[in-house]
Design goal:
It is built from eight helices and seven strands; from the N terminus they run E-H-E-H-E-H-E-H-E-H-E-H-H-H-E. The chain is globular and about 55 Å long.
């Protein structure tokens, strides 16, 4: 299938590793020019050198209030247009609700929710001009509450609502807005969860990695490239009639409606 993304321009946040890196690699392979945004200059530079098409590195902390405006302005200055915004940056603490401080909650929303909101606001008029699209990478924790994921679940639920609200506005403005909710994906963050699981149950890492999917009642963990392919489709004109969708890519973890 031709995704019709050749020579279009995408911003990908959280692009230095994991899911964000896979998204950047996939979009570049489809012929897109990619703006790589994250905090790690070295990791972004290494990724940029490996991609087949033109890139722009933006080493920036998206928790800063003007970061979204700066990334979009740099994109327009270099490429003259913007077609796709992928809001992927953001990680939140897991643990006991009563162990979290106000600062933990503030930080949880600062990057993933406010970073995505500000970038979407800064990018909107340019996406209007290109009839472009926003894809938010959120997470299934926003659908089903979990005692150990109170911050992340709350942030994810808010970002799902923002996705729906911007999709509603996007109908009149010609901007498509959708989201992908990853399940348990084989990234560095998942490795940390596996290590904690192994420690709690006093078992080897390999055994923990085998048991965790069984406990979730899924066949296996997902791969970052599987999320990236879903994003590429949603970002493409081939998905032109998809608006406000929340796509769970989780191996069947989410069983509720």
């Amino acid at each position: 299938m031709d995704l019709q993304l050749l020579n279009k321009v995408a911003i990908v946040t959280g692009a230095s590793r994991g899911i964000g890196k896979a998204i950047a690699e996939t979009l570049s392979a489809e012929g897109m020019k990619v703006v790589l945004a994250a905090r790690s200059q070295a990791d972004l530079e290494a990724l940029a050198q490996s991609l087949p098409n033109d890139t722009l590195v933006q080493a920036i902390d998206l928790r800063q209030q003007d970061a979204g405006d700066r990334v979009v302005a740099a994109t327009i200055e270099k490429f003259g247009r913007l077609d796709v915004l992928v809001n992927n940056a953001g990680a939140t603490k897991r643990g006991d609700f009563f162990g979290f401080s106000d600062d933990d909650w503030t930080d949880g929303f600062a990057l993933k929710f406010y970073g995505a909101m500000r970038l979407s606001r800064a990018a909107w008029t340019h996406l209007q001009a290109s009839k472009g699209t926003i894809v938010n990478i959120i997470g299934i924790g926003g659908r089903t509450g979990s005692a150990e994921f109170t911050i992340g679940g709350s942030v994810n639920a808010a970002l799902m609502n923002l996705t729906k609200a911007l999709a509603d506005r996007g109908i009149q403005d010609g901007v498509r807005v959708n989201a992908v909710n990853p399940g348990s994906i084989a990234t560095e963050r998942l490795q940390t969860r596996i290590k904690n699981y192994a420690k709690e149950d006093n078992i080897e890492l390999e055994e923990a990695a085998r048991r965790m999917p069984q406990q979730m009642k899924i066949a296996r963990f997902g791969e970052p490239a599987e999320i990236a392919r879903a994003v590429a489709f949603l970002a493409s004109p081939q998905a032109a009639y998809i608006q406000g969708a929340l796509l769970d890519v989780d191996g069947g973890t989410t069983r509720t409606l």
